[in-house]
Amino acid sequence: MAQLQEQTNNRLLSLDFFRGLTMFLLIAEFSHLFRYIVSPELEGTFLFSLGQQFHHVNWEGLHFWDLIQPFFMFIVGVAMPLSFANRMKKGANYNQLFRHALKRALLLLLLGWGLYCIGPGKITFRFQNVLAQLSVTYILAFLVIRKSPTVQIGFSVLLILVTEALYRFFPLEGFNHAFVAGENFGAWSNILISGQEDGGHWANFNAIPTTAHTIWGVLAGQLLMSNRTNKKKMQILLIAGVIGLIIGYGFSYFTPIIKRISTSTFVFASGGWTILALALSYWLIDIKKYRKGVLFFTIVGMNPLFIYLYAHVGGANLIKDVVLPFSNALFGWTGELYANIILSMIVLYLLWYVCYWLYKKKIFIRI
Description:
Radius of gyration: 21 Å
């Protein structure tokens, strides 16, 4: 691990950790661990209650798992000014950066869209997953990255307000119930783009309001790159996070917090929690220099696109099929449920080990 420490000395470790933890949780979903720990057999236990936080709320409300996509979109935003600053040091100009951003957004869109075509074996026009949504938030955030913080904040709030207005005042009969599942503007936009409403009522249009998460990430990245003191940086992050929570929860009586259609209150509340999560990571890791266990997650964040796609297209299931007979032989005596939980943990560890192997070989797959 000394080699890993040396390689990360000059990086913003809090960002690497935050990204790695988020990706680790994303791939944990593909190990089915979260599904098993909410088994009816465990109902009433602490593990069951904890497991519920790793599943999306059915409609209104907010679980921890509802923060994962905002985390990821925000983290990409934080990394943008750091990445572009490095490219500019190497001689890149704005036009080159714009072409790079446009190319990256297009690839993210194609990859996100392509994941929906794998299962049914036919062209499916859906754009609800994190990669497809990120393609939109990424390019919109780039378009204002050189603007002042006031303009960036104003643009992000404008996107949220436009979305709020569309949901509240959309005129078509049958889709004019702002916050009723399947009867709102988001459902109409799904039918327009995909030809049908999404079974879980996830709206394609979510990419527009959640662009705020990526823009706020850009602002956080610019803040952390600035010459302000660590104390001042922490103050700004904490104030911004608290403001997000106050707006999100404070106005939830008028506009419910609903992730599946990314209501304005959801964007603000999840944004507030996300900013506070970055602040905590920055304080612990980059200010207090607490590094225990950081590298375990950091190496997952070094190949986020690869491990997400690998787990999504069947890598997790392949590992599970290989390990299953050996896991059953060793742990079958614990009963079906606990044997499955142990199997899921082994699959998750091996997914992590794939990232570790790539890290050791200095293989980083980026677009």
